[in-house]
Amino acid sequence: MKSSTAQAIPGDTSGDASRGNLPRVILTALAPASWGTTYVVTTELLPPGHPLFAGLLRALPAGLIALALTRTLPRGVWWGKAAMLGVLNIGLPFPLLFLAAERLPGGVAATLAAAQPLVVAVLAVVILYESPSAWRLAWGAIGVAGVGLVVIGPKAAFDLAGIMAGLGAAASMALGLTLTKRWGRPAAAGPTAFAGWQLTAGGLFLLPVTFLAEGAPPAIDPPAVLGYLWLGLIGGLLAYVVWFRGIGTLPVTSVAVLLLLSPLVAAVLGAVLLGQTLGPIQLVGFALALAAIVAGQLPAPTRTPSVATPALERTPR
After folding, report:
1. 294 alpha carbon, distance to own chain's centre
2. Angle, alpha carbons 93-188-201 (nearest 5°)
3. Residue 163 confidence class, pLDDT cut points 50, 70, 90
4. Residue 107 near residue 153, CB atoms below 8 Å
5. DSSP states along 181-248
6. Which residues pair with 186 in a beta bridge?
7. Which of 40, 174, 205, 212 has the fewest CB atoms found within 10 Å of its own CB?
8. Are 91 and 206 in contact (CB under 8 A)?
9. Which residues contact 20 (CB under 8 A, 6 or more apart)?
10. Residue 59 contacts residue 52 (beta carbons within 8 Å)
11. Are the CB atoms for 179 and 127 separated by under 8 Å?
């Protein structure tokens, strides 16, 4: 098998996605949009009570397919880096989100996950040495508030362990996203191979966790086969290939705010396919979250330095 070199590919650090970056933003946005279908696929097609098994089938087979297609393995320090990124981006968030979903209403768990752009904005300062941006933090907070208005119901309950699990999942994914941007990817590894490394690592991490938590796999009927294929091929392989390509070519804060699309797509599908109602408050939340996504692709406004006007020379009388 071919081995990749250890030379990293620098990403584009420009904040202006309104021009040349727009096609890449749209392509990258397809990943969180596809992840927004997970809820309706899980509830309507998959056997109940096995969310970790669904996560395992989304990650591990997709990773092995990517490895088989590219025949490219990590080399040197990239064995450790790929394993760490796979656990942070894929393996660890799944059980934490599962715990959060068990102990919290789905809307609360989704809102906690939507806090990821805020965490990324902070980590970008610490890890990527970017300047602090009040613009990113403000729009990140507006995005979280918008998602909260869309998905949190009036009977939402709060549980400390569930909240910690939800925030832990957001922190894990945010750290994985930021480190992916910091390390780049090896020059000889394309986005498919890079995604395959992380999906495989995340899937191998999930393998013992899934069987310890859920026991034997469920019986799989034809609708479940379709659901698992969708999650594995579309929500797994294709989504992560475009996602990691986007991380390498777009500013990390711009990529992070696209994750707000996931709960929004889930809410739209719930309204269209499951008859769930979106009232005025939800529509306001939608508008706020969409505004945050758009603002996250724009450069922060800069103040024009004021130019001192020279004093008028006095003319002799």
Report:
1. 16
2. 25
3. confident
4. yes
5. HHH--BTT--HHHHHHHHHHHHHHHHHHHHHHHH-SPPP--HHHHHHHHIIIIIIIIIHHHHHHHHHH
6. 8
7. 212
8. yes
9. none
10. no
11. yes
Amino acid code (one letter) for 217? P
Instruction: Centre a 10 Å sphere on the Cβ of residue 20 and count the other Cβ atoms it contains.
Output: 10
Q: What is the pLDDT of residues 166-220, one digit of tens each?
A: 889 889 999 999 999 999 999 889 999 999 999 999 999 999 999 999 999 999 9
Q: What are the tens digits of pLDDT across the range 18-48?
A: 456 888 999 999 999 998 888 888 888 988 8
* Single-letter code of the amino acid located at 317: R
Helix (H, G, I), strand (E, B) or coil at 62: helix
- State the average pLDDT for the chain: 83
| Residue 156 near residue 105 (C-beta atoms within 8 A) | yes
Which helix (H) or strand (E) segment is 72 a member of? strand 72-73
Three-state secondary structure along 125-155? HHCCCCCCCHHHHHHHHHHHHHHHHHHCCCC
CA distance 164 to 52: 19
- Report the relative pairing of strands 72-73 and 2-3 from DSSP bridges: parallel
The upper half-sphere exposure of residue 201, i.e. CA atoms within 13 Å in the direction of its Cβ, equals 23
φ/ψ region of 181 (left if φ > 0, alpha if ψ in -120 to 50, else beta) reads alpha
